Amino acid sequence: MTWLWVMLGSALGGVSRYWLSGFAATVVGGTFPVGTVLVNITGCFIIGFFAALTGPDGRILVGNDTRQFVMTGICGGYTTFSSFSLQTLNLARDSQWLLAGANVVLSVVLCLVAVWLGAAAAGVLNQLKGA
């Protein structure tokens, strides 16, 4: 039954990615893939937060199906590493070396920071007393 939850989560993640990427392109423009960067950063934060919050030392205990639904399904369908890679390649092919490099640096550095912040935020919640 886990596969069904993962598929449902992936569909929800994909729709969310489509919406946020489109929104960002409308607001900022489509030359630089801001939507992809935002999706990857927020996806990294969400997976870091959820993994720490529901892990063995976490504040919330959830079953394996729920973890797979969120982490593999939603986050897997939401984050866009393949889109990021193709957009970076296209920028490089168009000799947009500065934009291609900026996309790599921003995506990698900010996503690592986001996953760390997500895990740290959940760590704070895990330490709270009470319910």
UniProtKB/TrEMBL annotation:
<keyword id="KW-0406">Ion transport</keyword>
<dbReference type="GO" id="GO:0046872">
    <property type="term" value="F:metal ion binding"/>
</dbReference>
<keyword id="KW-0407">Ion channel</keyword>
<dbReference type="GO" id="GO:0140114">
    <property type="term" value="P:cellular detoxification of fluoride"/>
</dbReference>
<feature type="binding site">
    <location>
        <position position="76"/>
    </location>
    <ligand>
        <name>Na(+)</name>
    </ligand>
</feature>
<protein>
    <recommendedName>
        <fullName>Fluoride-specific ion channel FluC</fullName>
    </recommendedName>
</protein>
<dbReference type="Pfam" id="PF02537">
    <property type="entry name" value="CRCB"/>
</dbReference>
<keyword id="KW-0997">Cell inner membrane</keyword>
<feature type="binding site">
    <location>
        <position position="79"/>
    </location>
    <ligand>
        <name>Na(+)</name>
    </ligand>
</feature>
<dbReference type="GO" id="GO:0005886">
    <property type="term" value="C:plasma membrane"/>
</dbReference>
<keyword id="KW-1133">Transmembrane helix</keyword>
<keyword id="KW-0472">Membrane</keyword>
<feature type="transmembrane region" description="Helical">
    <location>
        <begin position="68"/>
        <end position="86"/>
    </location>
</feature>
<keyword id="KW-0479">Metal-binding</keyword>
<keyword id="KW-1003">Cell membrane</keyword>
<feature type="transmembrane region" description="Helical">
    <location>
        <begin position="34"/>
        <end position="56"/>
    </location>
</feature>
<keyword id="KW-0813">Transport</keyword>
<comment type="similarity">
    <text>Belongs to the fluoride channel Fluc/FEX (TC 1.A.43) family.</text>
</comment>
<keyword id="KW-0915">Sodium</keyword>
<feature type="transmembrane region" description="Helical">
    <location>
        <begin position="98"/>
        <end position="125"/>
    </location>
</feature>
<comment type="function">
    <text>Fluoride-specific ion channel. Important for reducing fluoride concentration in the cell, thus reducing its toxicity.</text>
</comment>
<dbReference type="GO" id="GO:0062054">
    <property type="term" value="F:fluoride channel activity"/>
</dbReference>
<keyword id="KW-0812">Transmembrane</keyword>
<dbReference type="InterPro" id="IPR003691">
    <property type="entry name" value="FluC"/>
</dbReference>
